[in-house]
Amino acid sequence: MLRHLKCLVGNRTVLPLALASPLLLPAACTLSLAQEWVSLFNGRDLSGWSVQCQAQDRDKGFWKVEDGMIVCDSMGRKNHNYVWLLTDREFSDFELRLKFQAFAESPGNSGLQFRSRFDEATGGGWLDGPQVDIHPPESMSWRTGLIYDETREERRWVFPSLPDSRMPPDLAPLRHVFRYAEEGWNDLTLICRGTQVKTILNGIVRTDWQGAGVLDNVAHRRHRVGRSGHFALQLHSGDELRMRFKDIQVLPLPFQPIPVRPAVSAAMQEAIACREIAGAVTLVATPDDILHLEATGQADIAAVKPMETDAIFWIASMTKPLTAAAILMLQDEGKLSVDDPVGKYLPELATFKTPDGQAARLTLRHLLTHTSGMPEATREQYRSARSLAEVIPFYANRTLAFVPGTEWRYCQSGINTLGRIVEVVSGRTFPEFLQQRLFDPLGMRDTGFYLTDAQLPRLARSYQSNGGVLQEVPIAFLNGASPAFRDRYPAPNGGLFSTASDYARFCRMLLNHGALDGRQLLKPGTVALMSRVSTSDLKTGFTEGNGWGLGVCVVREPEGVTAALSPGTFGHGGAYGTQAWIDPVKERVYVLMVQRSNFPNSDASDVRGAFQEAASQQGQ
After folding, report:
1. How far is 552 from 44, CA to CA, in rounded Å?
2. Do 88 and 51 form a contact (C-beta atoms < 8 A)?
3. Structure confidence by residue, pLDDT tens digits, 83-114
4. Main-chain dihedrals φ then ψ at residue 73, nearest 5 degrees
5. Which CATH number describes the domain made up of 35-252?
6. What is the pLDDT of residues 245-302, one digit of tens each?
7. Residue 12 CB: number of other CB atoms within 10 A?
8. Are 202 and 179 in contact (CB under 8 A)?
9. What is the C-alpha to C-alpha distance for residues 388 and 418, in angstroms, rounded to an integer?
């Protein structure tokens, strides 16, 4: 039986919308389920295709039909912009297969764009949408089958996730599966179901990517790409290219909307009806897939602005596991140990004393587990700091509250100290380290300490509950400043903003023993160290039955609000009710994004309990 939030509005009981209304299916779901392969090329002419490009390139004849093949030939003719051969038809979910030949003497590259759309109104035209890379130059042939996103606001590799086109050598696979024309044809299969994209090159899987949070984000929605659109073969700007294509067939698949679990929807609708929250984004994932992603309620009550799945939230203390991961990455590289004394990296913190005046042996492990006893800075001190280097003196030359390791006391100063140690050891600022080592590799495009002007409209408003009425409040730690204001220190204890999809990628990496999308960010043993109890029998956390790992709370004995979770589940909550938990037994990730400032205990909120209970139900 699902737990239900008990509430009265006026003098009547409110039924959540998901329980009071019939289930409505998107219109696309009423399409016929009959499936058959459709040929996109008749072998005689370019019927069903059109050339899209700038006007000066339209009559250059780069695309034509020869001997039953589509041929692209720009050899000896480099003075051109992008030229696409675009299908007349659009597709949403599908399986596509084709054969292509590339020639070793051709230095240019091509690609297969999908779910794309041509916009004539921008500088001679542009084709927005993702692309399967087809890259014949010898040094780059291994990139064939990977995914680059040509959408204007993206323009980056999305599988593997990279901030730009510079492909690190460590990402090159050991086995080249691409073949040149002298060796025969290449077989390429592209499968798109919802936001899951898979490519198979000559029988070898090259891409298996869950694109939730990317293919359905605001940029793709703006251009109406990512979930539906045209196919296109590409001639890259300024390239000399010789390519051949044939046997192009597509199998349309029934439209798959973003999955939603009705029980979770009902739980969130009930919380909104009870005025516990204004809105929420909820996500449930496995190591490989998204089982549920839904936006419910409103992001801005006054503006009557509905919540969107790519809404941005202040995640507060959910920053702490990312700080811990940064420390553990440096340990994996042999640059530090969690059992090192803090004073080894910050000499100004080498003179801590215990309450009885003895020299304290304070280690990074104590900071990670909140067993340090470190003193805290005042709000005024934090407000004055512009960098982590300026924060550390606030803690120096003071007495610890207890002998390190003997008690558990939630400690902001310890986590902030870890962020500064990352800077000292790595030689980079804390935001730079997280961006380069975690956010970019994981594709966390909307996670950071400072929002951009483009991101600000997606920030969900924050509310507090007063007498059953939700009132908007500012984000406390910003002290009245905009989230885009950069003249403040990047708080490792709670300064990050993120989305549900972004944070779920971090969680899925941990659930996958440190790997995601073919990249190993943490060693499996390191994730095991992070996620096991390191506080012995000390009473820890803000709910019953927990221990503490390295930067994360660990459920030792599920009870109360954690009853739906398995022993060994680990994660963290945030001050405004955000929650993210990783259940290694059920192999599930649970992410709850809300912005409510005055829960009596956000880790023990009924909203969290109802979400986790609904999300953990099998088959719901």
Report:
1. 62
2. no
3. 999 999 999 999 999 999 999 899 999 999 99
4. -140, 110
5. 2.60.120.560
6. 999 999 999 988 888 999 999 999 999 999 999 999 999 999 999 999 999 999 999 9
7. 7
8. yes
9. 10
